[in-house]
């Protein structure tokens, strides 16, 4: 994930493509579908780089927070703190 993080944390689209090339060089032998998927969907994914860096940071930070909340819900959902009695 650290290598892929360099793609979406790049300062601009050209840097992101260079980071994707670096990622592919390291990981394509083991996981070729990852960089292939990013390249096939680049027209949509590259829209992200049209936002200012501050907004982009909020976008991926929000996803991390949502992931944390999802994990928390998974743990607390199975617990019954309140009974009907």
Task: Give a structural overview.
The protein has helices spanning 2-8, 13-27, 32-40, 42-45, 53-77. The protein is 71% helix and 0% strand.
Q: What is the N-to-C order of secondary-structure elements (H for helix, E for strand)?
A: HHHHH
**Given the helix and strand composition, which structural class is it?**
mainly alpha
How many domains? The number is 1
| Oligomeric status | single chain
The poorly predicted ranges are none
Largest sheet: none
Mean pLDDT: 84
Shape: extended
What is the count of helical runs?
A: 5
Radius of gyration: 18 Å
The rounded distance between the terminal residues' Cα atoms is: 47 Å
Helical content class:
over 70%
What amount of the residues lies in strands? under 5%
Care to count the β-strands?
0
Can you give keywords for this protein?
85 residues, mainly alpha
Briefly summarize what is shown.
This protein has helices spanning 2-8, 13-27, 32-40, 42-45, 53-77. The protein has 85 residues and is mainly α. It has one domain.
Q: How are the elements arranged and paired?
A:
Layout: H1 2-8, H2 13-27, H3 32-40, H4 42-45, H5 53-77
